[in-house]
Design goal:
69 residues, alpha+beta, two-stranded antiparallel sheet, 1 helix, 14% helix, globular
Length: 69
């Protein structure tokens, strides 16, 4: 979703000027931690690209109140 080298047909979901070149899961997790979020890395495979493994999940809502963080 974030790889600037991928085309829209390959699965990039954001504009190239906002994308990063070949980001790794660890790099994405580090950025999220720096921004104050608590990322969770999961082992997942995608049918479109079986070699790409992993997913980063982020809870954007506060558990007790349900408000966005």
């Amino acid at each position: 979703y974030l790889d600037s080298k991928a085309s829209l047909a390959d699965g990039r979901r954001i504009a190239v000027e906002h994308a990063a070149e070949s980001p790794t899961l660890q790099e994405i997790a580090e950025v999220l931690e720096h921004l104050g979020y608590t990322p969770a890395l999961e082992d997942k495979r995608y049918p479109r690209n079986a070699l790409a493994r992993g997913r980063v999940r982020v809870n954007l809502k506060d558990a007790p109140t349900g408000e966005l963080t």
